[in-house]
Amino acid sequence: MYEVGASELVTAWHEMPGMEGPEGELHSHDYRIDVVVTREELDDQGMVCDLDVLRAALAGTAARVRGRNLEVIQPEGADAVTVEVFARWIHDQLGAALAGSDGGGTLQVRVWETPDAFGGYAAALD
Q1: Do the Cβ atoms of 21 and 79 come closer than 8 Å?
Q2: pTM
Q3: 78's torsion region: left (phi>0), alpha (psi -120 to 50) or beta?
Q4: 38 within 8 A of 48, measured Cβ to Cβ
């Protein structure tokens, strides 16, 4: 299995309704977003995917939430934007940007809320 990846740092705000303490109030996190694309075989150019395309898509996605309240990406029916929900949203955004790449592969997203705790989402690229 081949893989390439990129990371981005972003500060954003969220709150967890019904929780006490700082988590139940609007507060910020310095999130680290790690993305990895994997493929069984390399494309015709000898790549998993173009790293410039991956980095640009990740930077653009991060810019949409940088310094903002994550409620802007909160899906209907969700009480809050958890790291798992955040990771799924990033996957959806990047999946759309990478859809034109040659061949399938899998996109894995990890959103680190602290240096030692993350949530993630992984699924095949369409």
Answers
A1: no
A2: 0.90
A3: beta
A4: yes
Specify the 3-state DSSP secondary structure of 86. Answer: helix
Residue 102's pLDDT band, with cuts at 50, 70 and 90, is low
Per-residue pLDDT at 90: 97
Which residue is listed with tokens 């990740």?
58
- Write the CA distances from 121 to 47, 60, 84, 91, 110, integer angstroms: 23, 19, 7, 7, 7
User: CA of 1: how far to CAs of 19, 100, 121, in Å?
Assistant: 41, 20, 18
For residue 92, which phi and psi values (nearest 5 degrees)?
A: -60, -40
Mean pLDDT along residues 114-122: 96
**Largest Cα–Cα distance of the chain, in whole Å?**
53
Whether 25 has a pLDDT exceeding 60, the answer reads yes
Question: Which residue do the tokens 């990895």 mark?
Answer: 36
